[in-house]
Amino acid sequence: MLKDSMKTINEYQRSKKLNDLDLDYADLQDEFERLVKLAKYITDTDISYVNLIDNYSQWTITSSISEPFQVDREDSICQYTIQGEGIQELPNLDQDKRFSDNPFVKRDKLKYYLGIPLKVSTGENIGALCVLDQSEKNISLEKKRLLQLIADEIVGKLENKKKLDQLEDQLASAIKERYQIAHDIRSPLGGILGLTSTIEEENMDAEESKAYFKLINGSVSKLMELTDDILEKRQKLRDKNQFDLSSLKAHLEELYLIPAGNKDIALDVSFDQTKNQYKFSRRKLLPIIGNLIANAIKFTPPKGSIAVTLDIMEMDKKAFLTVKVSDNGIGMSKEKLKDLTNDTLGLNPGTNGEKGFGLGLQLVAEMVNSIDGKLNVVSAEDKGTTVDVTVPI
């Protein structure tokens, strides 16, 4: 019992570390494509993948044969790799009882698997770099070491991406200060420009005065160009790191329509089009909403439905993003809801027997709290669950 409890806690820490990286899986394909092709080339194998594994799913963010895609975690081979400390090699994949009936092993007639954990600097395995082949392989120790170097490079890029995001936040704060300064000085400078232009147009007799004012005009024009440049840079940085309601909807559909469809669940994402002018930070939104949708998919039976509603609410002269995720799944009892608020971790199978550690809502609660948001869960057994998230923008 204690062993299972420790395993669940470790899984919570592992899943939390992956969520803390705040990754947009749809945008990672190009960044790692060459490294994945290099892994395939080094080992002379048919297939190479980079897989990131969350609470319920394996996200193949880069592969040598396809666009990024998602599979249920129980169908993942790499889920066993991340539970170990080193390289996982399966020379007879089709004869292993754990994988002989795996749909991907059977479909692609796979015989060989080699997986290297993607271990972050704090020690958690967030995924795996793997190669697979339809024939038995004998990959040398030297080549395995080269694959380990590729895996380390992938982890380094992911962690540096997080550091870059943090630096961009700091830069955005600095540019915001420059932006305020630019606005403060732009108005009086505009007045000076108007004054000097008027003096020039009045054909003053004093040539020296005109020359003097021309110098002022030129200096002020340069200052105006500087303020315009500051404002333009700020806008570009904001656009890069922000969503509006329509782009958030598009990202969610790209990531979760297929997983929902694979279970024959209708997923509808809607938003108030009259409020699409609002811009808000991308930070932590995809992990928060993604966990809610994945949780809903897990606990909603086939032929069920999930509705995601995105909106902007104004209150006390402040704006808030509101996200509502409602499903008609199996719901939760009052006791289970109480367990969630008490941080009780447990293993909860989904409606199709999906494996999971019951961590989705607890991870969401922690992330929502970290950005000063609010979370509310309403659920009843056999009546579904509705989760409301409100975060300031």
Automatic annotation (TrEMBL):
Keywords carried by this UniProt record: Kinase, Phosphoprotein, Transferase
Catalyzed reactions per annotation: ATP + protein L-histidine = ADP + protein N-phospho-L-histidine
UniProt domain Histidine kinase: residue ranges: 180-393
Origin: domain of life: Bacteria
SUPFAM superfamilies listed in its UniProt record: ATPase domain of HSP90 chaperone/DNA topoisomerase II/histidine kinase, GAF domain-like, Homodimeric domain of signal transducing histidine kinase
A Pfam family reported for this protein in Swiss-Prot or TrEMBL: HisKA
EC number(s) per entry: 2.7.13.3
SMART domains the UniProt entry points to: GAF, HATPase_c, HisKA
UniProt-recorded Gene Ontology molecular function terms: kinase activity
Protein name listed in UniProt: histidine kinase
Organism: [Muricauda] lutisoli
Organism taxonomic ancestry: Bacteria, Pseudomonadati, Bacteroidota, Flavobacteriia, Flavobacteriales
